[in-house]
Amino acid sequence: MQRIRKGDRVVVITGRAKGQQGSVTRVTEDHVFVENVNMIKRHTKPNPQANQPGGILEREAPIHASNVMLYNPLTKKGERIGFKILGNGKKVRVFRSSGEVVDA
Questions:
Q1: What local confidence, expressed as pLDDT, does residue 84 receive?
Q2: In the beta sheet, which residues pair with residue 26?
Q3: What is the pLDDT of residue 20?
Q4: pLDDT for res 104
Q5: How far apart are alpha carbons 88 and 61 in whole angstroms?
Q6: What's the pLDDT at 95?
Q7: How far apart are CA 41 and CA 17, in angstroms?
Q8: How far is CA 51 from the centre of its chain?
Q9: What are the average pLDDT values for consecutive 10-residue runs of the chain, which has 104 residues?
């Protein structure tokens, strides 16, 4: 089970994009792509076969998963995540500070 999942709201805690918040659009092995955070400019050649125009495109660059924290809307800041097994045997993510369950 991963600590950060697609669709989670996260806060960047270090690096060039420190303090920015966004929603996770993609998760790889140990990197996450956050919507409108860590934007880079990519110079691409046109590809007529794929009907792709060339030019300078802006897109998100990956951020290492250790450099983001899950956003807690109650405390309005990033918090650490732990795991807990409920009585019915289901494993859920919880905020370490309050112990409240992240997953519904």
A1: 94
A2: 33
A3: 96
A4: 55
A5: 39
A6: 96
A7: 15
A8: 30
A9: 92 95 96 96 95 93 96 94 93 93 79
b/e per residue, 46-74, with b = 16+ CB within 10 A?
eeeeeeeeeeeeeebeebebebbbbbbee
CB under 8 Å to 41, separation ≥6 — which residues? Answer: 56, 57, 58
Stated pTM of the model: 0.85
What does the chain look like in DSSP terms, one character per residue?
--SS-TT-EEEE-SSTTTT-EEEEEEE-SSEEEETTSSEEEEEE--BGGGTB--EEEEEEPPEEGGGEEEEETTTTEEE-EEEEE-TTS-EEEEETTT--BS--
